[in-house]
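User: I want to check something. If I give you two sequences, will you return the structure for each one separately, not as a complex?

Assistant: Yes, each is folded on its own. Here is the first sequence with its structure:
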Amino acid sequence: MTGTEPDRSPIISLRGITKVFGTGATAFRALKGVDLDIAAGDFVAVMGPSGSGKSTMMNILGCLDVSTSGEFLFHGHHVESLDRDQRALLRRRYLGFVFQGFNLLARTSALENVELPLLYRGDPKQDRRKEAMAALDKVGLADWAGHTPGELSGGQQQRVAIARAIVTNPEVLLADEPTGNLDSQRSVEIMEFLSALNRDSGITVLMVTHEPDMAEYARRIVHFKDGLIDRIEQGNGAHTGAHTGAGVTG
């Protein structure tokens, strides 16, 4: 889909999503009825204070948790009706994840770390190596394939984590505070790479961040407050590239 306009129908659609933790007097309503549409090729940053519901929503979008009520459609299919194994299959086929703490295996080379999703998928070793090297090359680290995380800078480790996330060619990349452990220079490098990945490959990026300047790389900034979408702003990313997403409702 490089260089083309995205389908205007949403790849992801949330309607009336709620999430309640606990029961009775101790019940906590983390989400109180969230409506959100995301088109293929969108870049959405999610912001909000602790307890606002942003992380809960991302866990639901990543099929790591399920909503208490409401509809979650992915390509028109009801995710909320899937069982645990079906959600795991959806994650493997369509989603990639990047975390604040990198989550790399310390004694394993960059190449082997990137290979892991392909190993879990059952790909042959020769194919795994080829795809993992291609992913490392895409993030500019092909020459560092044999190095362990301890031999890499924080920015390089996060790029390895991004390579691992995209090696399966996911449609959606979910990034949870991807620059949270990096200095300002490395943070800018990572955000510029995510922007280029979104713009050139058309991958949909959903990112949680506490940093307003990092959020500005997105096309849309969704602010959460008290379990609801408080407001939506246009980010600087809306003025770059062709992959403009659908709107937010609610």
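And separately, the second sequence with its own structure:
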Amino acid sequence: MPRDTLKSKEFFDKWISYDLERMQQKQNRLDSGGIPLPYGKVTAAADLCNKALEVIVMSYSRGDRVADFSGHVVRLLAEREQLKALCDALPKDEQKKRIQYERLSFDNYLDFFWWLSLAVCLGMDEAHLERVIALINNAGQDALLDRIAVKLGAHQRAVSNELVFPKQYALLLQALDAPSQEQSNLVKKFLDGWYKGNKNLAAWYDNHKGEDTGYVGYWCFEAALVVKLFGIDDSSFRTHAHYPADLVHNT
């Protein structure tokens, strides 16, 4: 049964199948040398990373068992490592082009948190998480990201006191150190404003209004990450429209 209430199972069937087929075609081109230019390889690899994450989110929206996502999460790590390797191989005069895939833009920020959320909630091992954190990098740039990385074992990481997106993420950061009951209230308040807070920032905002606009579902995986890592009671917001409760409770 679909978890998403805005699109049908058939919608997600169609686009998951389409994306997986296109991903395989693109990977085949990379493997066979069909993409000769170094930066062309980077853009192809970046698209594979995006699609790999989108397929997982669509699978969640479709109603797939969370326990079945582990292989997809392993693949996402492999896609990210491939992207880094191809960025490292760029000529010196093209190295600056990699910044768009690595900096904390709003879309990258969300992708990094969603990736971490999936890895944590699916119980990926310490070595896997270390590789994820190393690839995300950006140490000392964002308080929320740094605190989560430290919680996951990156104890030597520089920790910022500032948020890159304070308007959107101050409540979630506050929840980390608040008293137990207040933690739940802060996360719920964050969830209540989450979707609207993405307006004019997230590329996917309002894309449920079309049939071929890349809709994957509106799930606040970053809230799930904080709840799981910091042991926050989610009983007061478990049925929230944007909260992926089944991911947290692995059902």
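Because they were folded independently, the notes below concern the second chain alone. The mean pLDDT is 96. The chain has two domains: 1-102, 140-250.
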